[in-house]
Amino acid sequence: MATGLNMQPFLSGDSAEQLKLLRDQTGVQPFVDKLGENGLYPLRCNGISVLQVNLGKVCNMACKHCHVDAGPDRKESMSLEIVERCLQVLDGANIPVLDITGGAPELNPHLPLLIKEAVKMKRRVMVRTNLTVLEQDQNYHLVEYYAAHGVEVVASLPYYRESNTDRQRGRGAFIASLRVLRRLNSLGYGGEQGGLLLNLVYNPGGAFLPPAQQAIEAEFRRELQSRQGITFNQLLTITNVPVGRFLNFLWHSGNLENYLQRLAAVFNPAAAPRAMCRGMISVGWDGTLYDCDFNQMLGLACRNGQAGHPAHISSFNLEFLQQREVLLDNHCYACTAGSGSSCGGATADSCRTKK
Amino acid sequence: MGDYYKSDDLDKFATMGEEAPELWEKFMQYYGAVFAEGALSAREKALMALAVAHALQCPYCIDAYTRESLEKGADREQMTEAVHVAAAIRGGAALVHGVQMKNMINKLGF
């Protein structure tokens, strides 16, 4: 049980410090041991079908569940040179999906170029947006730009009511999000089959697991349609991963050990082989390569072949990376808990929804 | 008695099966079936359990069904309304027994 506020100083955000904290929870079986017990260790990549590019940590918001610790005060942002390297890899390695994330990707000036060139290559392009950034004058036009390029929009909306959403994302976030969702709907997003795809993302508002994806999707659909006149294609439930700002919250609220124990108690062996790290590679703002966006924030970089150097987009070794061993630690419990969790929502069979 | 109820004790609930494993097994099967999706959704059942937990003032049940309601997608407003339902029924139950009082007064009085 939570024992009240922890009076330790706030984490610095340093990745080594975060990893130490995750490993120091004595009541939690190490994740690699849990995989081993279930005959699932080591976990290896099984081909790369998604290039996930994190354009930087700059964001107009500072959400409580954010594993990136993104915010307006961050400066890290991908350069044009690295963006062009990403495009070369997307082309050369014939990776079919480009998944763009951040921070707020819209706050990187090279986002339109990345989208335009990837679409020219006929790649499936998705952008993970916080919605509210598209209300800013300098980004307002990007909604039309997304539509014109057939970009899939994956939008954060933690709940279908204002108080819950604003508690997690900041005052005014819900109303601003609704305005942008209505604009997306008016451009053909979130409508009938064959139209532009608008998927929403649900994150729990604290140290607890998400509900069954299909059940909460039905709630969202009914509530957003009847109360707000908004439609969408799919709701993706994502388990909060104990990294970054969310890890800080867990630590200071006295919830960390309990949360990890909760994740471990509902470990689902069927979710591990379906973890997103097995089919993707994640690119950091500086071009370093990772198994996923969470490993990125913990500084767990992929190795580049047997040499053991951190892998970088400028020396992309497809043959090695597509069968690499995934780097694991206790935060990985979040992706294997219950119905499983990934950037594409729940991963276990019972909770998968048809696209 | 301030520490009569301990949160960690909820984890020991299964020890109630140590001396009566068959009864425990039957109870758990029934319990699991009750809370499965049915004519009512799992979320609706979690909210009902939360309300009952407050009516019974069971601290273990309050902890368990607060988490369960959140993990079934309920939010603070819905959960608070569920507790008000419990309060209304408990309060109403007290008040409606006033009729018994009046019946008795009418019987005893002039």
Structure description:
Chain A is α/β, with parallel strands linked by helices. Helices cover 33% and strands 10% of the residues of chain A. Chain A has helices spanning 15-23, 31-37, 80-92, 111-120, 142-148, 162-169, 173-186, 213-228, 244-252, 256-265, 293-297, 318-321, 333-336; strands at 50-54, 97-101, 124-129, 152-156, 198-202, 234-237, 280-283, 289-290. The relative contact order of chain A is 0.18. With 110 residues, chain B is an all-alpha fold. Chain B has a single domain (22-107), classed as Up-down Bundle (AhpD-like). In chain B, helix 2 packs antiparallel against helix 3 and helix 2 crosses helix 4 (76-96). The longest helix of chain B is centred in the C-terminal third of the chain and has 21 residues, at 76-96. Chain B is extended, with a radius of gyration of 19 Å. The termini of chain B are far apart. The mean pLDDT of chain B is 94. Chains A and B meet through helix 8 of A and helix 3 of B.
Oligomer classification: heterodimer
Number of domains of chain B: 1
Average pLDDT of chain B, to the nearest integer?
94
Strand content bin of chain B: under 5%
Q: Please provide the count of β strands of chain B.
A: 0
Question: Helix amount of chain B, in percent?
Answer: 55-70%
Strand arrangement in the largest pleated sheet of chain A: 6-5-4-3-2-1-7-8
Determine Rg of chain B (CA atoms, Å): 19 Å
Task: Please outline the helices and strands.
The complex is a heterodimer of chains A (355) and B (110).
Chain A: H1 15-23, H2 31-37, E1 50-54, H3 80-92, E2 97-101, H4 111-120, E3 124-129, H5 142-148, E4 152-156, H6 162-169, H7 173-186, E5 198-202, H8 213-228, E6 234-237, H9 244-252, H10 256-265, E7 280-283, E8 289-290, H11 293-297, H12 318-321, H13 333-336
Parallel strand pairs in A: 1-2, 1-7, 2-3, 3-4, 4-5, 5-6
Antiparallel strand pairs in A: 7-8
Chain B: H1 21-35, H2 42-56, H3 59-71, H4 76-96, H5 98-108
